[in-house]
UniProtKB/TrEMBL annotation:
It comes from the Bacteria. It holds the Pfam family HTH_3. SUPFAM superfamilies: lambda repressor-like DNA-binding domains. The keyword Metal-binding does not apply. Keywords: DNA-binding. One of its GO terms (molecular function) is DNA binding. Signal peptide: none annotated. Residues 5-50 form the HTH cro/C1-type domain. It comes from Stigmatella erecta. This is DNA-binding transcriptional regulator, XRE-family HTH domain.
């Protein structure tokens, strides 16, 4: 099952910077136990699988399902960008969105 998550999506879900998640993915650093557990939960895999100690198989899956992606990747990227805006710009963006919906 493909989750269709970007590095930024996973980083946000496990509460680390995108750059840090990229290093984790490339093997440039090891996660803390807490981060490893969050990663297992979000990717729906066991820690053994992530650490290469077990074969990837449905039998070894973590029983709890990961959080479902709320939106398409484009929407998630927009939301991440919007979180960095000040209130005035958010209001302006809302007006632009309403105008686009009226077209």
């Amino acid at each position: 099952m493909r989750l269709e998550l970007t590095q930024a999506d996973v980083a946000e879900r496990i509460d680390v910077a995108t750059e840090v998640y990229g290093r984790l993915e490339r093997g440039g650093m090891l996660p803390s136990v807490q981060t490893l557990l969050k990663l297992c939960h979000e990717l729906n895999v066991s820690s053994d699988e992530l650490l290469g100690l077990a074969q990837l198989s449905p039998v070894n899956r973590v029983s709890e399902a990961p959080s479902p992606p709320a939106e398409r990747p484009e929407i998630r990227r927009l939301l991440r960008s919007m979180r960095q805006l000040d209130p005035a710009h958010i209001k302006l963006l809302g007006l632009v969105a309403k105008a686009l919906l009226r077209r």
